[in-house]
Amino acid sequence: MSDMINQYRNNFLKEVESKVEEGEWVKNCMQCGVCAGSCPLGDAWEHTPQKIFMMIRAGKKQEVLSSDAMWMCTSCYNCIVRCPRELPITHIMHGLAHYAKRLGLAPKNNPTLKFAQIFWNNLTKTGRVNELKVGLSLYFMNGFVEGIKTSLKMQKVGLNMIKNKRFSIAEAWGGHSVKDKSGLHKMLKKAYDLESARVDK
Amino acid sequence: MAIATNQTILIVGGGISGMTAAIEAAEIGKNVILIEKRPFIGGRVSQIYKYFPKLCFPTCGLEINQKRIKQNSGINILTMSQVASVTGSTGDYEVVIKTSPRYINEKCTACGDCATVATSEIDNEFNYNLNKTKSAYLPYSNAYPQRYVIDESVIKTDEGKKIADSCKVGAVDLSMQESETTLKVASIIWATGWQPFDADKIQPYGHDRFDNVISSVEFERMMDPMGPTSGKLVRPSDGRDAKNVAFVQCAGSRDHNYLKHCSRICCMATLKQTTYITDTYEDGKADIYYIDIRAIDRFEDFYQKIKNKDNVNFIKSKVASITEDKKNKNPVLNGVDTEGYHRYANSYDMVVLAVGMQPAMDTSILPKDITINEHGFMENNDNNGGMFAAGCAADALDVNRSVQSATAAALKAVQVVNSQS
Questions:
Q1: Residue B368 lies in a domain
Q2: Residue B148 belongs to what domain range?
Q3: CA A71, CA A45: separation in Å to the nearest integer?
Q4: Which CATH number characterizes residue B34's domain?
Q5: Per-residue confidence in pLDDT tens, chain A, 201 aa
Q6: What is the set of domains in chain A, with CATH numbers?
Q7: Mutate which of A32, A52, A81 to disrupt the B interface (most B C-beta within 10 Å)?
Q8: How far apart are CA B33 and CA B385, in angstroms?
Q9: Domain count for chain B
Q10: Closest to B343 (Cβ–Cβ): which among A30, A34, A43?
Q11: pTM
Q12: Which of A34, A75, A132, B252 could cross-link to A171 by cystine, CB 3.0-4.6 Å?
């Protein structure tokens, strides 16, 4: 019986089921549209979750993975709470975003994606977020000129934060860190290998 | 009260299923005891305005059943009664029944003098509490037995005394107490029926917050000439004509957050209810928001008939939320439709939530080995011994199928009785 069903399941749906976190839920969607209607950002996206799930089932790999939809999710969980079939929609969307990034299909200039990458790079270096560097990287995300402009605009806020000890200029040289940095890197490497074993098989 | 023996069949619940099972078993000569929680028999069917798909009134079928019961000496009815406990096994059950006081005995002629002198009012349960009724009341005009009820709240008051004094036939008995009866029976048919899913629990739909969002069962009462609006199809907020009405399907059904099962009757009930609007107002209009229309088996014809109407629209979408337009109290439906993914925010005079069917059985009184499925319905199973489920105690069923199910249960119960002698 299940072999028969698999014959009719297209390759991209199978791929999502085996390689995307929580992807095995996609086939359970009954296309009622509650997630689409409940999303507070719904009309700001290219595709709603309902549409993304239908596109997966229609085998539209390129369109799905290059969509900005997954990157717009703010994790408000409205869709999860209301889904009549208890699909973990938020998690599926994040799983798809992650998978798209891995395959290099994610929209290159999406600000959420850029910020996520900056944040990740910063955090994994020392195990602690270096707020000074995250802030500055964010300002200069779209080029040098815009970076200077934003920095000047935020000058007062920055100075006040330093005065109130919300962050320190000293962070520019190394910054604070977890005790066992090499242990952290080993851990991250292991996690990445485990994930790769699943995704690249 | 007839003597209950190991030849007796006990039927719990006096709705359409319980009545049917009682009549079927009694008409082939079996001794039947029918108990009902409410002060009258007929159940939810008596609260329905019209049946689908024939659009006829349930009153006539109920009257026929009442007549068959009256003519049969083998049926004993206990109203305002509930099962407290069950012990024993097939052919030899011992059932304890608790009966609440009605404060009116069988001498009642239903003249209504007690209601005339009664001054305080109570919520009208028959109309889903949409209006009030007197503290001495007949549940509804065709109630069987035709006997008034006096509400607990006035028994120890001066009003209670006045009510007692007003009765010319000596039917009022304020000293009545809750009583307990123990019965020996061979077989038990559970016909405990259903209750509408509490629409207030569906938070995004605002049934508890918005006046013009009502449930499908409330809509049925509204259409009844004896109902809370005297049969007028008007908005609860301001009494204006409700001409542009939306129906929201699967309100509480097919939803893991509420009832997992498909309640099966709501699609047909909504199709039927659109005719209330289009028949009342020439310029009336109904929009149905649905996941899929499940007009089961031979009801497809009825679905096609409604679908062909210009003033009934079908929108494939589970409504995400309902908000209220503060200006005119219009409910606004928000969502995205599945055929084209269009985002909508549509305003209506009134919205009807097609609420699901929830089994009404209190399973805690049943012996442990009775099979209750994950939805709370009792499944017929050999392990259940001499106990059988009928109608909506067994599954979400319409009236037609409930009657079939009740007849089948009656046959099973008769077999148990026959195997005893």
A1: yes
A2: 113-166
A3: 9
A4: 3.50.50.60
A5: 566 666 666 799 999 999 999 999 999 999 999 999 999 988 888 899 999 999 999 999 999 999 999 999 999 999 999 999 999 999 999 999 999 999 999 998 899 999 999 999 999 999 999 888 898 898 998 889 999 999 999 999 989 988 998 878 888 887 889 999 999 999 999 999 998 988 887
A6: 2-102 (1.10.1060.10), 111-199 (no CATH)
A7: A32
A8: 19
A9: 3
A10: A43
A11: 0.91
A12: A132
